[in-house]
Amino acid sequence: MTTVDLQLDRCPEMVRRRRSLVPHAVATPQFVTATQSGSSTVSTSR
Q1: Whole-model pTM above 0.70?
Q2: Is residue 17 part of a domain?
Q3: Rounded to whole angstroms, what are the CA distances from 37 to 32, 33, 34, 41?
Q4: Which residues contact 39 (CB under 8 A, 6 or more apart)?
Q5: What is the average pLDDT value for the chain, to the nearest integer?
Q6: 8 is in which domain, residue-wise?
Q7: Model confidence pLDDT, tens digit, residues 15-30
């Protein structure tokens, strides 16, 4: 669990965005590269 993850959990709006992004992220190669380069919060929480 990273500090970014904690910050997202504190903000309900961001949590909603992250949850809504997860299904699209699976089918989006761009999100995969973004996850590898920066925050791996989504891949960690799944």
Answers
A1: no
A2: yes
A3: 9, 6, 5, 12
A4: 2, 4
A5: 57
A6: 3-37
A7: 666 666 665 545 555 5
